[in-house]
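Handout, section 4.2: multi-component inputs.
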Amino acid sequence: MSEVSKEYNFKQAEEKWVSSWDDSVYYFDWESKKPQYIIDTPPPYPTGNFHIGNALNWCYIDFVARYKRMQGYNVMFPQGWDCHGLPTEVKVEEIYHITKNQVPREEFRRLCEKLTEEAIERFHKSMARLGLSIDWSNEYITMKPEYYVKTQRSFVQMYRNGQIYREDHPVNWCPRCGTAIAFAEVEYDSRTTTLNYMRFPADEGFVEIATTRPELLAACVAVAVNPEDERYRKYIGKTVRVPLFEYDVPVLADPVVDTKFGTGVVMICTFGDKQDVRWWMEHRLPLRQAIDRNGLLTKIAGPYSGLSVDETKKKIIQDMKDREIIFRQEPLEQNVGLCWRCKTPIEILSERQWFVKINPEEIRKTADEILWIPPHMQVRLNNWVDSVEWDWCISRQRIFATPIPVWYCKGCGEVLVAEEEWLPLDPTQTNPPVKCKCGCDEFIPEKDVLDTWMDSSISALAVAGWPDRKDLRMPTQLRPQGHDIIRTWAFYTILRCKSLLGIRPWDAILINGMALGEDGHKMSKSLNNFIRPEEVFETNGADALRQWAAMGGSPGNDIMFQWKEITAASRFQQKLWSIFRFARPFMAKTDGRPGQVDRWLLAELDRLVLAATSFMDNFQFDETIKAIRAFAWETLADNYIELVKARLYGPDCAEKRAAQNTLYTAIETLCRLMAPIMPFLSEEIYHSLTGESVHVQSWPKPLGVAADPAGLAVKEIAAALRRYKSERGMALNSPLPGIVVYSDLGLETVDLRGVANSHVESRIGKPEVEMKPVAVKPQMKILGPMFKDKSRRIIKILSSMDPAEVAGQKAYGCIKVDVDGEAIDLPPAAVELVVETLSAGEAVDVLGVGDATVLVRK
RNA sequence: GGGCCCGUGGUCUAGCUGGUUAUGACAUCGCCCUUACACGGCGGGGAUCACGCGUUCAAAUCGCGUCGGGCCCA
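Output:
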């Protein structure tokens, strides 16, 4: 038998298994008769590196995937890459010092693809090192034609179904990125701006208006007042004159106008903010676009045209001050919409864009069919759905994204949407194979591309075999994701799946929290609280990081990265290793009939199996790992192994074989229970024990061993004897002069001898010592429901009674109490007694352990 | 301004469909090198479960309010 090192060499073991495991055992089997379990895994954005937050998310997924596989499911744990989008474009522009328009489209796209491929390679390495059981036969890469053909087909189908349309509509616009963005991509930040008070000439005198955006003066299409506002009632229906630009706009009445803000008169521009859009639509106002796609003022801004928003603001304020149009200014805290990517303030422009219809009712109903873990996360989705005002703008004026498969006829302007069989294609590279209805065969390609969420929101469909497989596997079983993308990825996926197939995308959605740094803040490089998974792989290994993820608490909670958790995880691994090292020479599958102590251990093991199964079924990974640790460390190592050591060291006999067999069963089962959370150490031990991989084994089932109270009693007596020695300063291996154990259970003494290091006698019954009841402990659990409001009185009376008297009555089967003259009978279970054992002989110590009594000769 | 989550020993955390002595980890104190493990063993100390009111025989757990922290949205 080869040497087993004293310390568990996690690095050597983990690296060995990473390079020798055969990934094909994790492949989804499309032909299998087993029940399917498809996980709609997040396709990460391949920029930068795999970070701790990813690791947390993927640990959850891997726990579930491995567990379900062992439970006999045909599991699919696919891995996608959400490649397209602005961050990669921006990175390419940085690296090559170019802008997207300085190189041909195809060239720019190629540079983006190259950068993405490199990132995917890095992610692959980290993921393998973390021990993820990914099904690489189901990898998808959204920038590849094999995937984006699906995105394009989904576009075409939704267009034909009337769920996608093209229209002039206000959109959020990022002037820096030069593209439209969706609301989900707008974030808000509080900034101090200036509220400018200015005078608009009216028929009689002036109307005073307060605005934060004087640079939009040329876009003013109306002013509005509250109809209840006495001050301005006379102006309603009349016009006022826009200063500087000298044209008239109507004065509208709208109850939304806040009479207490500014002067109570608001300028409506197209468009300063979302509220302007609402008013513009409601009152059917004209459009005056003063800002263009580059964030510069248009020609309607007269002298300011061609200037940026900031320049205009400065200049126009000065001009209006000079002419005494602006008569007052004050600072104001205001929330500004920013582009999520580059933090540039967004503008709202009216643009001809492509939109996906949003039906809030349908999304809410579909979300109700999904199991949300934890449930309150569904509220976040509902809040978002309720706040949606416009349809989803899906066209982007960028390059690195899925092309919109559309052309416009040069002759008649007719929109030509590609047929599904023509796909995949890029209209800027390919002409349609048909002529337009008008006979013209010249087309203008659609240069806009699709929002990246159009790619990733069909991930569930794509992995389940849509659109080509006849045996489409929808709905999938699980969507794991973070709570930060509920309003985007979860929302869009539900929307698209419902629109395309009319069903829910998943049976359940499991939300993980964010990984926080040790200081409790979100991990970021700028806060210097950033830990890379690779660091942990080096110092403590992947299993330790996985245990941290499991220990983090209930799903959905943000969890802090803590080195002490990693250290604790490593210690547990070392403990398991020591257990294995000790047990290895003894473990064997033999015929020994289990004794009382063995049966106790096996019953505890059954309890662990049942608990772990229920925890895993409910995604309570923290409870699972805690239960495993408690069993391995306390039950198995500190109690069972200490008890059976003497038997194992002794010569071959039935009792020894029973212990050998029990030890084998316990460790073999433990490995299978640990396999989803600690795949490396479990494999290391299991493989050495059986020669097989633990990852193709089944999840343990209880053996059906009934708990034997005698085994538990022996374990407790052993603990009491160890304590007895410890308290008297005796070495734990020093012999006690002699022990007699009294119990009605007929206790086996074989293991007590090893603990006492002396002869142990077991007798039935009670010893000749006085057992004196000294206190009565009322059992509220029983008394409360039985006697309700009387229970408080009963407790008082019980505590005033002689404990010996109560003990006597309890033994008799009924405790009589007198409550204010009323005689009440209590069941024996209503009280427990605290018993003090008094030594009768002079040379004996008496230990009361449960129902057993131990006499220790002095 | 609205919604959601959270506030438990020094630190982090479990429990929260109400019912013995409130879970675990780390830290801390005492004793112990007992032939798997000192990254160990045995034992101990440490919590008015944020605060207030209420419901109840009984509240960390349910309700209302206050304060504090976080997230999402306007």
